[in-house]
Amino acid sequence: MSSSSTAVGEMKFGDHLCLPYDNDAERYAVLLAYIRDGLRSQHKIVYLAGERRPDETLARLVRATSDPDQAAVLTGAAETGQLAIRPVVEATGRFDPGESPALLGMEIERALAQGYAGARITGETSFTLRGRFDEFEDRCQVTFGAPGVRAMAVCQYDRRWFDDAQLRRLEERHDGRVGVNAVYADDVLTITPLYTPPGLRLAGAIDESTLSAVQRALREVGGRGSHLCLDLSALEFCDMEGLRVLTRASQSGTGIDRQVVLRGVPGYLGLMMRIYGWEGMPGVFVEEAVR
Amino acid sequence: MNGLQGYTPGTETKGERGILLHRALMYGSEHDFADVAVPYLREGVKAGDAVVVITSGARTALLRERLGAEPAARIEFIGQSDWFKGPMQALADYYDRTHRDWWPRGRLRLLTEPVWTGRTPLEVQEWKRHEAILNVAFAGTPSTFVCAYDTSALDPHIIVDAAHTHPELVDIEGVRVSEHFVDPAEFYAGCNAPPLIPPPAGAARRAFASGELPGLRAFLSTESMRHGLPEGRVLPFVLAVNEVATNIIRRGGGTGAVWLWTEGDELICDVADPGRPMEDHFLGYLRPRPHQPGSAAMWAVRLLCHIVEIRSGDNGVLVRMHLKLPRPPRTPDHRP
């Protein structure tokens, strides 16, 4: 699994990204951020849903957010039409890879005519399953790649429905993948959530300037379960305090001990753990990086 | 004959399991060496101790011959040059092997012959300090360290300091208390007494404060490679300097500076904290325990470097790290 993806918060007009997901936590973390950013920017959200009844789709989105304020915002936007949920079958009548992108073009035009600053499209796997999605996505690339287009799209793909070769072909028909927003990012360190297994990916450097961000992120993932995976494969530097915090992440703030897996531990960190005698910390399993 | 009046090796293993014995074996000839060493080792084998010999190939051959095959087979012989690479590495290796291999078998009975020839004056100084630290690092452990000194070959100051750093002396006359033994903390302080010569005018310099360590690390990487440090050793070096700098930011004066230069076959890096002195009580020499962080950072710094010197006083702290370069540096020495 490669890590190169565009954070949903970084998306801009013209982007046509795919969201291959294998769990709903990751999927909705991206989608809810995508919709929230759109609503704030006065974009119209066009959601092509698998269900026939839009209220079911809305209920699903509302359930996915833990934030009551955002739930209210979603419901309100659905009422005003800023969040337009279109059952795929109703939107297109049938799935025609030649015709559907044209309908998307009309949706974008309509959004702009309604006075919105732009359009954010997202569609669920089910509609692409019904047809020749390769052709559909190729046409979408043309639609969203047009100069000056004031729209963007996120295509949701349930990984379980596709084999690796199909997923690769799909990804090639997009500008890339969209991923969750980092929980922390500066010039030195980026921390992004992991969902399968739950945890954090730390990329860059942990030093005196970024240690408190690491501690905060570890505290905040505390409630997410009995296992925690820390992907360190892109951690280029980590000082002693940082290593101490990582090797003690099994002791969560809530007092409930959790099993921590340190994944992709770079060679220098293995060396430092040996020097400090921090190998075999209880509750910590170390997977050294493959060289 | 064993010539060991007053030396009763059979008794030291009984009821004294937690007592460290640290003795300098003074010998003037190979014959004298063997006369003291062979009974000492034989007694250990007989008592079921973990018996370990760290000496030269020639001494090993002599001991094997004099001991006989059967006792020798129960002794672990370690090559002198394999063990005494650096004073800090040897200390860490002692910690590792005693805990992992030796003490689980019983009392450790060690015979070593440290290497003194071919050392720089600084290295000789640090190996003397190493002998003083053994008294503290292994205090209260079931260990006997007998360190052999060839009085006919070594510089007199090495023999004099052996009497300062070993609580007991042993020779063919027997064991006696070293009257010149110096409290290890005092010996340690004495090693830190001479001031360090300031960096040469051409040394690369960079100041740092909180939030500036990423830039400092980039500077250290570039400069150390430019001075000939192999790529694979750059990150350990940067880790070491970063720890010292972090300590200055967190617990010291808050800001500092580094200087980097080469001298002979060494890369030298100074880290200075003009703001605040630092307590140096065997700082970084005693192995950190998992639940007692203490001076863990400085332990790592020492292990990541060849030799680390610390000077602390009213003018703040200076930490000088020495790293061995694999070959003469490509850039000329800046020292005038």
From TrEMBL, chain A:
Pfam families: MEDS, STAS_2. Residues 200-291 form the STAS domain. InterPro entries: MEDS_domain, MlaB-like_STAS, STAS_dom, STAS_dom_sf. This is STAS domain-containing protein. CDD domains: STAS_anti-anti-sigma_factors. It comes from the Bacteria.
Automatic annotation (TrEMBL), chain B:
Pfam families: HATPase_c_2, MEDS. It comes from the Bacteria. GO terms for molecular function: protein serine/threonine kinase activity. Keywords: Kinase, Serine/threonine-protein kinase, Transferase. InterPro entries: Anti-sigma-factor_SerPK (IPR050267), HATPase_C_sf (IPR036890), HATPase_dom (IPR003594), MEDS_domain (IPR025847), RsbA-like_anti_sig (IPR047718). Residues 213-321 form the Histidine kinase/HSP90-like ATPase domain. Residues 22-167 form the MEDS domain. The keyword Ribosomal protein does not apply. This is Sensor histidine kinase.
